[in-house]
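Late entry, pyridoxal-5'-phosphate complex.
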Amino acid sequence: MTNWKNYTRESRIAYFSMEIGLSADIPTYSGGLGILAGDTIKSAADLKLPMVAVTLASRKGYFRQVVDQEGWQKELPVDWKPESFMELLPTKVLVTIEERDVKVQAWLYRVKSPTGGEVPVLFLDTDIPGNVEQDRRITDHLYGGDLTYRLKQEIVLGIGGARALDALGFSIRKYHMNEGHASFLTLELLSRARRPIEETWDERAAWDTQHVLGQCVFTTHTPVEAGHDRFPYDMIQQIMGEPVPLTLLKELAGKNELNMTMLALNLSRYVNGVAKRHGEVSKSLFPGFEIHAITNGVHPFTWASPYFVTLFDKYIPSWAHEPELLVRVDNIPDEELWEAHCGAKAYLFQYIQETTGTEMDPDVLTIGFARRFATYKRGDLIFSDIERLTRMGEGKLQLVFGGKAHPKDIPGKQLIQKIIGQIKSLYPKIKIAYLENYNMDVAYRLLPGVDLWLNNPIRPLEASGTSGMKAALNGVPNFSVLDGWWIEGHIEGVTGWSIGPPPEKNPSQENHSDEDANDLYDKLENLIMPMFYHDREAWIRVMKNAIGKNAYYFNTHVMMRRYVTEAYIR
Ligand SMILES: *Cc1c(COP(=O)(O)O)cnc(C)c1O
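Prediction complete; structure with ligand written out below:
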């Protein structure tokens, strides 16, 4: 194994993310944000980009989900051992928390590509002898605990991360904040860029914000309020002290409370949303800032099922490193594409049988819906009119669900309970499975194995959505509300189908639920089911278009080339 010091030879782009999903064995992610971070780093390795990623060790993971007899989600800790996957780096750094010196160490994970590219990922960890017990727990639970716990985690991530890179000898040419959780790194950079007061005459001008601005890139990931961390200033002072003068901090991060998004916006020269629509929405949320858009993607090799890997290798060689080549999907014979899909479907149904005991029917149109169970994603929309659903779907529709609710999100847990309640009440007219503990492994089996991928969030709250891209890569067409990436990927009846009205000029957060549900039923009944059952050739055409017109573009290789040319080299 090469010495880790080799990584410090050339200057790198540092990618900071509270969560990273690299594999199901390293459970330091909760959903789309983390998987995107993992896919980003994998494509960076494939493309041999000089990057280094920084995240938290999250020793107890997010949580392992079990669902009890009543359909209620319970959370169990996931104990995983960094030492099974990573090497501990020798250098420790200190951060100040409640006036204590807290030691932070870093575990090195190497993301290696078959191209020979490698990207190091640092997992920061405070579980070190010498730290007091409560400080040793800071890097345990991803998104766990209360607001002070979150603040401490963000100090470790932003300030500890920047210090760790420095202490290990990394030279950093840009700092990329994947969401606002890492914004405190800007304060560390500000302190470093501080000029002597004699040179500048006044205290304010000693803080060289322009210098920091030029070093930072910020990607905002959600218009949902809860996704933007805010801390009261008295909590900040009590826990962090005053890393920069309070007047300056308030200028940068908000008058009344410290807003991590504002801090990142004010100290980054390049800011972007994660789909064209989300860029626009973010501009209206944060007036006065220039906000660009780089649409998310998925890592092709990670998300193609084994059946499709074989197929693509045969007909579209080099597709994994040049996913644009998927435009040539028409070289694949229809029967072989269908066979690969049936393989993926059988593989999923076997898993459903093993984990839930439900025997699904391979000939029945199967709809998948799995993602974090946040209420805005409306996981229960398809059950709006049970009578209609059973009338049109009896023996002709099957549903597969999966997804975790945040431990404190009671309405989210109620949604899961509601869906689980439908399993018994609709059986055997409509077979429904809910797969416990949705994670990267479950997603890898679930996504390619359904016939249609459903997404019906309240617009404009789905910033991008990436699970639909994973579906498309495996020839599974999307059936989705026009929000996030689907506004860009959707061609009606060609790449998949839309649900509900087109995006509004001035998006409100009205949920249009009746309109959306009606449209969902209408299209299923009149377009989608007839095509699936009576015109297999047309159906396979849509499957191919999902690959050739969606997956060839909505991948992290294309996305990273854009980050390099539009954000990093500036
Ligand atoms: C891709 C993925 C997500 C993201 O799903 P969205 O529909 O984009 O919200 C969440 N969880 C897991 C395990 C995933 O693989």
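Residues 345 and 449 are 4 Å apart (CA to CA). Will revisit in the morning.
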